[in-house]
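Proteins fold reproducibly. Consider a sample protein:
=====
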Amino acid sequence: MLTCETDFRAAGAETYRHIRTGEKAIIIVSAIAGETDALLRQAEALGGSAADTARLVRLGEYRSAALMGLELARLGVRTRVLDPHEIGLVAQGDPLDADLSALDEAALERALDDADALVVPGFTAGHAVHGAATLGRGGTDLTAVFFAARTGADRVRLIKDVDGVYSEDPAVNPKAARYDALDYDAALQASRGLIQPKAIEAARAGGVVIEVAAMGAGAATRIAPGPASPGRLRHRGPMRVALLGCGAVGSGVLDYLRGHPELFELNPVLVRTPSRRRDDPRAAFTALIGEALDGGPDLVVELLGGADGPAAIMQGALSAGARVVTANKAAVARHYDALHAGGESGRLAYSAAVGGGVPVIEHVAALKSAGLASIEGVMNGTANFILDRLAAGSEFGDALAEAQRLGFAEADPSADVEGHDAADKLSILIREAFGVALPPDDITKQSLSEVSADKAAEAAARGLVYKQIGRCRLAGGRVEASVSVETVPAGHPLAGARNEENRFVLTDAAGRTRALYGKGAGRWPTAAAVFADIMDMRRAWSGDERVQGRATVRAAALKSA
């Protein structure tokens, strides 16, 4: 799948869609397509030993792992990139066609405790005799299967440039049959050139289920004991999309959509001034809503400002049978009932409206059945910045002016300063957690302007930090909610949020807590959350069911073609 550096954007989105469901992922990466062959040619020209060749050839995977880590960090995913020696990954045998033999599972678990995603270079490991080894052509598959077996994952997903295993190469024979399921023996025959045979044998020995899928797919070819099962037909045509708004987040979403021309067909993108986009080759642009919605799009992605106007557009789209994705917290909070009544269940998604790249809505949904008791969160980056500047000695007016100059605050900062932005988000969380309608205007709010530099300094001297905290809890059958500016101990889970970072603490009825961290604003974290919703809608529209299971991508391999 990794044919060039820009493919890491799609690989990051693929990882994020699993992280947002609460899974932890181990991503095993290969070199970018052609890089391994180029390094092999270089080694052959120099005439080095097999051991020295392995040291050179593995560099492609090391580079890919670093690039993947950087991409996930840009999205706000807590990530660690691990070299083989850091986790005791060792192989034995021929240094150019070795077999994995050891892994320090304790070191891996410690790394997982501090991160939601681990990135490991595939195809390579340490070697007791030669120092370094590679695992043969397709060795990233073997690395992923080995990790799945050693970590107790019940499956490994291999991401390829096809959506499963076929009876023949579908690029050669478009009528080739696709399989939903194969046993290990049948897979060895059918997947020649697609999956490393050693990886299939290792999966058989370890009782690991292999899933073979394309980037963004829900369904996969499942390789496990059992009879072969032919794949059913799915709708594979592009989904017609209307993108409304192309600011920082909208531009990021546009890049994601253009990265998948086989999945999405774009209408003219709605912007305020199309003439400013003359030099933007990514799409056609229009200022007319009719042109943007022409032809009855399958999906409307609403990224406009304001509440009432965008809500009316979304209601119309839902009533017409379209699916809708939005990041507009004000529209969702103030028109929640009307939007949910506008179309069939499951046709409206707004994960990015609260928390940006922090999947707090998904976690609230997952914990709802256990009974949520309370939610508290730092959910406004402007407030973080201003309060940090006050603690550093700036007066409120100066801190606000600096926030505006750096782009953290709008020209009219009242939504952030007076707590309206946080109240919109809190209102949505209350709906999702408790099913209670509490409009943003009915939530008590406190202004940041009540905190002075002197107050912030006094708090810091006592080991306390000022934060704008949105809080709601269920008490006596009713919901209590507020947005307050208060001090918390420096070691509190919410205290460390800086700039655009958002943090949340969810507490269930048994008193157990779950803390969530990530970037709550910014082009790429928010665009990734929007695109994750878009891909959910695409899979539902095309009949491509999401794979269920406790460890869908505990170990995943991202492969070059």
Notes: Residues 523-542 form the longest helix (20 residues).
